[in-house]
Amino acid sequence: MQPFLKKAHGPLATSLSYYSNLIEHCFLLKSLDYAKFVHAQLIKVGFNTHTFLGNRCLDLFGELERARDVFDEMPKRDVVSWNTMISGYVSFGLFDDAFRFFSEMQKAGIRPSGFTYSTLLEDSVRVFEEIYQWDSVLCNAMISSYAWHGFGENALQLFVLTLRENLRPTEFTLSIVLSAVSILLPVDQGSQIHSLVVKSGLESDVIVASSLVEMYAKFGLIDSAMKTFAKIGARDLISWNTMIMGLAYNGRVSKALEIFKELLIGGPPPDEITLAGVLLACNVGGLVDEGLSIFSSMEKEYGVIPAIEHYACIVDMMSRGGKLKEAMDIVELMPHEPSGLIWGSLLCACEIYGDLRFTERVAERVMELEPQSSLPYLVLAQAYEMRGRWESLVRVRRAMKEKGVRKVIGCSWIGIKNHVFVFKENQLLHIGGKDIYFILRLLIQEIEDDGYASQQYDKVRAVGEVG
């Protein structure tokens, strides 16, 4: 530290990197006296107004009073500044101050980050664990907090503990837990919670029932989802939307459109989520004309202004249908800035329908929006390879390597009983591989007997022979 302090009055003392190094050395030495000296020097040369250095000083001062002084002196505070103070209060057990700072942070127009919420959740957990006697309200609130902030596993663990303590879950808690189950647990666990719902007499509750519909739809058990939906007495728009979306995602296009017609006849007015589900159904079913008709009548018929997700769905639908020019016209005329997802839909269709110039144009746009995406490079490489453009192929692969873009290995999985089987792209060997690929070859043969063939099946057949 001494060599740095000797230069405090030299030419380097006006360098940001100089003071950044000083602060890092204070961390190593864990010296509060040195920290105070460095902060005094920052004030002297005017660097105390620099947000990054100010944030590092906040980290440096373990004493909250001193850290608060540094915080108050900072003319510009970012989300890191506020998070550091909130984290400091939580670590000292000053939970009221932490939540007060959180409130002040929002009033100052600073949007909380994931770290902010996780810190406050940690705060809540500490308080919760110190409470001697739990009650239903407290546990339900804690389960909801876990789930809302992405800690679904913790939510489920606490839910099980509350059941052991004979604490009754509310309708809202069951809804939250069912949503977490559909992501984290196999279908058997979801069925057990459904049994609990029935025992609690809440199967016809619209909130719980909608969550059951969503859970079964995510598991692919669409018939169970429809049976649950049929038992809902007074259906709200959320339950209608959940059923339409579930049917669309599971490829039950006709039924999704049928439910939509039932909604128009005897249900509440559809909203943007309803129409997104209907457009998704048209997309999955290849119903381009019907999808375009619904899309063009959204505002006039239903009072819903098309949002970016509606445009994304309609562009994807038209791209899949080979109508690239029409899809491009929509992209160029849409009132929103096209997202990477929209350009990606066009690009995927280019592999099948697009000419080279069109493919290059779309690929360049995707590269601008998503620099680390491997999709545009892979599509271009395939397009050049198919046309024998070897120099262009080498150039694309070189650019991909120079920019550090890596292909994400695709994978899919299926849960059978208590086992989850994961399949990675181009995987040559797999547990139970011989049986799996034997069944695949049988399925491919049936598909080919029906008159459909693809080069992709040759790869599967070859892998099956290796495995």
UniProtKB/TrEMBL annotation:
GO terms for molecular function: RNA binding. Keywords: Repeat. InterPro entries: E_motif, PPR_At4g14850-like_plant, PPR_rpt, TPR-like_helical_dom_sf. GO terms for biological process: RNA modification. Transmembrane segments: none annotated. PPR repeats lie at residues 78-112, 135-169, 236-270. The keyword Repeat applies. It comes from the Eukaryota. Belongs to the PPR family. PCMP-H subfamily. PANTHER family: PENTACOTRIPEPTIDE-REPEAT REGION OF PRORP DOMAIN-CONTAINING PROTEIN, PENTATRICOPEPTIDE REPEAT-CONTAINING PROTEIN. This is Pentatricopeptide repeat-containing protein. It comes from Vitis vinifera.
